[in-house]
Amino acid sequence: MSFMDWWSGTELPPSVIPIAVICALAGSGVLSLYTRWYGLGTLLFNGVALFIGAMAANLLALDLYLPLDRYYVRPVVVSFAGMSLISVVVLMWFVRSGNTE
């Protein structure tokens, strides 16, 4: 039994975590372009938030049937969907908290 199986209580493909990490790193770089006026700490905050969104989307879409490759294509598509939702929430939160630029 792997850590991912124990942690999530589900059987995700082993490629989900590395794909979610890579997508979150790329997404946090892009998202930090819009939140950089708050400092460099937003890069870390954005990365963690996007990783949580990617993993949550992969866990929620586990039983959803998609005609995609289960090990590579599906985790990328589902991760981007979860990260898109989280990035909208993060942008709304940062704008509401007082962007003076």
Give the low-pLDDT segments. Answer: none
- Rg for CA atoms: 15 Å
Give the distance, in angstroms, between the N- and C-terminal Cα atoms: 50 Å
Number of E-type strands: 0
Keywords: Membrane, Transmembrane, Transmembrane helix
Chain-wise SSE layout:
Blueprint: H1 3-8, H2 16-35, H3 41-60, H4 73-96
Plain-language structure description:
By secondary structure, the chain is an all-alpha fold. It has one domain (15-98). The protein has four helices and no strands. It has helices at 3-8, 16-35, 41-60, 73-96. The chain starts with a helix and ends in a 5-residue tail after the last helix. The model has no long low-confidence stretch (mean pLDDT 82).
